[in-house]
Protein backbone atom coordinates (compact mmCIF):
# COMPACT_ATOMS: atom_id res chain seq x y z
CA UNK A 1 0.00 0.00 0.00
CA UNK A 2 1.35 3.44 -0.87
CA UNK A 3 1.33 6.65 1.09
CA UNK A 4 1.42 10.22 -0.14
CA UNK A 5 3.72 12.72 1.58
CA UNK A 6 3.15 16.43 1.24
CA UNK A 7 6.30 18.53 1.39
CA UNK A 8 7.35 22.15 1.43
CA UNK A 9 10.26 22.44 -0.99
CA UNK A 10 12.89 25.16 -0.77
CA UNK A 11 15.33 26.40 -3.37
CA UNK A 12 13.22 26.20 -6.52
CA UNK A 13 14.13 29.37 -8.37
CA UNK A 14 12.60 28.79 -11.79
CA UNK A 15 9.65 26.82 -13.09
CA UNK A 16 11.84 24.07 -14.52
CA UNK A 17 13.16 23.29 -11.04
CA UNK A 18 9.85 21.66 -10.20
CA UNK A 19 10.41 19.23 -13.07
CA UNK A 20 13.90 18.47 -11.81
CA UNK A 21 12.58 17.73 -8.33
CA UNK A 22 9.83 15.51 -9.69
CA UNK A 23 12.26 13.54 -11.85
CA UNK A 24 14.76 13.13 -9.00
CA UNK A 25 12.02 11.64 -6.85
CA UNK A 26 10.56 9.42 -9.52
CA UNK A 27 14.02 7.95 -10.15
CA UNK A 28 13.86 6.36 -6.66
CA UNK A 29 12.71 2.78 -6.34
CA UNK A 30 9.44 2.79 -4.45
CA UNK A 31 8.26 6.19 -5.63
CA UNK A 32 5.13 5.78 -7.73
CA UNK A 33 4.52 9.40 -8.61
CA UNK A 34 6.01 12.72 -7.58
CA UNK A 35 5.18 16.30 -8.40
CA UNK A 36 6.51 19.68 -7.37
CA UNK A 37 4.92 23.06 -7.88
CA UNK A 38 7.18 26.08 -8.37
CA UNK A 39 4.37 28.57 -7.75
CA UNK A 40 3.47 27.19 -4.32
CA UNK A 41 6.83 25.64 -3.24
CA UNK A 42 4.95 22.44 -2.49
CA UNK A 43 5.39 18.89 -3.58
CA UNK A 44 3.68 15.55 -3.22
CA UNK A 45 5.23 12.11 -3.35
CA UNK A 46 3.32 8.85 -3.56
CA UNK A 47 5.60 6.09 -2.30
CA UNK A 48 5.68 2.57 -0.94
CA UNK A 49 7.04 2.81 2.63
CA UNK A 50 8.12 -0.85 2.46
CA UNK A 51 10.55 0.07 -0.33
CA UNK A 52 11.69 3.64 0.27
CA UNK A 53 11.76 5.77 3.42
CA UNK A 54 10.77 9.38 3.86
CA UNK A 55 14.39 10.05 4.89
CA UNK A 56 15.58 8.76 1.51
CA UNK A 57 13.03 10.98 -0.19
CA UNK A 58 14.37 14.05 1.62
CA UNK A 59 17.90 12.98 0.78
CA UNK A 60 17.10 12.72 -2.94
CA UNK A 61 15.69 16.24 -2.89
CA UNK A 62 18.82 17.52 -1.15
CA UNK A 63 21.09 15.63 -3.56
CA UNK A 64 19.27 17.38 -6.41
CA UNK A 65 20.16 20.72 -4.79
CA UNK A 66 16.91 21.61 -3.04
CA UNK A 67 15.52 21.31 0.44
CA UNK A 68 12.33 19.88 1.90
CA UNK A 69 10.37 19.86 5.10
CA UNK A 70 7.16 18.07 5.94
CA UNK A 71 3.91 19.86 5.16
CA UNK A 72 1.21 17.70 6.71
MO1 LIG B 1 15.87 27.06 -13.70
MO2 LIG B 1 16.09 25.35 -11.45
O1 LIG B 1 17.08 27.67 -15.07
O2 LIG B 1 17.31 24.04 -10.82
S1 LIG B 1 15.76 24.77 -13.54
S2 LIG B 1 16.82 27.51 -11.73
UniProtKB/TrEMBL annotation:
Organism phylogeny: Archaea, Methanobacteriati, Methanobacteriota, Stenosarchaea group, Halobacteria
Residues represented out of the complete protein: 2 to 73 of 867
Domain HMA residue range list: 3-69
Official protein name in the record: P-type Cu(+) transporter
Annotated signal sequence range: none
UniProt organism field: Halorubrum aidingense JCM 13560
Compartments reported by the entry: Cell membrane
Family: Belongs to the cation transport ATPase (P-type) (TC 3.A.3) family. Type IB subfamily.
Amino acid sequence: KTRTAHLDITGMTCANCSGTVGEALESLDGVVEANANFATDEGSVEYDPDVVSLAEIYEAIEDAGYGAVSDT
